[in-house]
Amino acid sequence: MNDRTSASVHDESAEPNTEPTDEEIFGAHEGGKLSIAPTTPLTRPRDLSIAYTPGVAKVSRAIATDETLTGHYTWTRQLVAVVSDGTAVLGLGDIGPRASLPVMEGKSALFKSFAGLDSMPLVLDTTDVDEIVETLVRLRPSFGAVNLEDVAAPRCFELERRLIEALDCPVMHDDQHGTAVVTLAALRNACKVTGRELSSLRVVISGAGAAGVACAEILDTAGVGEIVVVDSRGVIHSERDNLTPIKAELAERTNARGVTGGLTEALSGADVLIGVSAGQIPEELVGTMAEGAIVFALSNPDPEIHPSVAGRHASVVATGRSDFPNQINNVLAFPGIFKGALQAGSRMISDRMKVAAAEAIAEVASDELAADRIVPSPLDPRVAPEVTEAVVKAAREDGVATA
After folding, report:
1. 237 and 260 in contact (C-beta within 8 Å)?
2. pLDDT of residue 383
3. Which residues are catalytic?
4. Which residue, 9, 314, 327, is CA-closest to 182?
5. CB atoms within 10 A of CB 326
6. Whole-angstrom Cα distance, residue 227 to residue 202?
7. 3-state DSSP of the chain
8. Which among 250, 75, 238 is positioned nearest to 145, based on CA atoms?
9. pLDDT tens digits for 45-89?
């Protein structure tokens, strides 16, 4: 199942971990990071008559008769549209579609390198949900799945929901669910390291944007004991005024004890802190958490609390950065999730498929499990194949697979 090339992914320990220079960075992006190459030879007249006219007409007629043949005779079955409106790009914010394009090209390069999937960056010069949905509905014959990327909350929630309803193919907003899947994987292994069970955990999530909401949802699905979500106004609870519809749903699903106040009240005695906001968290608050606490400070480039500071109070610390141990990196999740969904012929990516992906990621790291190694390296060649296999199995068990 692993069709990545050895030249694409290798052991990063073989190279010195030095910061790239501006010259290296801009040089690598000059002319873009993608190209399209034919998969069949085009060196003889006979090759042309097979790949193009007149031979191609036979394939087109066959598809015209039976549209289900499209995925078999075109690249759509392994083609992901990487779609952004440029409103929430990395830590840069709303920089627009053109400035987001290098990021989307990078995402496509990751799809190819880690899962052997082709993908096409599509940056749209609109932030109107209706227009984005209409555009992708009209483009649907050209791709097999949609990876939403860097779309700002709260529009990202409506956009993903609308696209799932409108398109008969897998759709996933990676900023939400990729982060959530890897977070769940890391938390499973952090529990093993600290002798805890998911069902007994008291988890505090700082941030109620795209990643925060998705983390709360997947942790709830996975059976985490207690989840409290804190946004810029404090703890989300059912008695709070002016909750958005998304936060009102969160209030119904989380905070069973009815905690009120802010991070001070939420973190007291908590087992786990998951930071997915730009706000800084004081050391003294982390010090009030339970003994042997788990801290995931995932904001980039500046974690909510520096890992060396968090480590004074926590047994396991993770960040979103590659220069600290335990990087929670979406590349562990999305290549295998999309490949599995496409391979299964699934028309959606279900909760069961996401949880299965998290379990597969956690299992890859289990052989060398330690406080500073609760997830595999993003370059570990075992990850995408294991995630793919788990997602295909889950899709079939969920009844959403057609292949």
Report:
1. yes
2. 97
3. 52, 107
4. 327
5. 23
6. 6
7. CCCCCCCCCCCHHHCCCCCCCHHHHHHHHCCCCCCCCCCCCCCCHHHHHHHCCCHHHHHHHHHHHCHHHHHHHCHHHHEEEEEECCCCECCCECCCHHHHHHHHHHHHHHHHHHHCCEEEEEECCCCCHHHHHHHHHHHHHHCCEEEECCCCCCHHHHHHHHHHHHCCCCEEEHHHHHHHHHHHHHHHHHHHHHCCCHHHCEEEEECCCHHHHHHHHHHHHCCCCEEEEEECCEECCCCCCCCCHHHHHHHHHCCCCCCCCCHHHHHCCCCEEEECCCCCCCHHHHCCCCCCEEEEECCCCCCCCCHHHHCCCEEEEEECCCCCCCECCHHHCHHHHHHHHHHCCCCCCCHHHHHHHHHHHHHHCHHHCECCECCCCCCCCCHHHHHHHHHHHHHHHHCCCCC
8. 75
9. 999 999 999 999 999 999 999 999 999 999 999 999 999 999 999
Cα–Cα distance for residue pair 244/233, rounded to 1 Å: 12
Q: How many CA atoms lie within 13 A of 17 on its CB side?
A: 6
Question: Can you list the residues of the chain whose pLDDT is less than 70?
Answer: 1-17
Query: How far is Cα 356 from Cα 100, in angstroms, rounded to an integer?
Result: 31
Place of tokens 């042309």: 48
Closest CA to 310 of 206, 181, 160: 206
pTM of the entire predicted model: 0.92
Q: Which two tokens stand for residue 317?
A: 């610390």
Determine how many CB atoms are found less than 10 A away from the CB of residue 103.
20
Distance between CA 353 and CA 133 in Å, rounded? 24
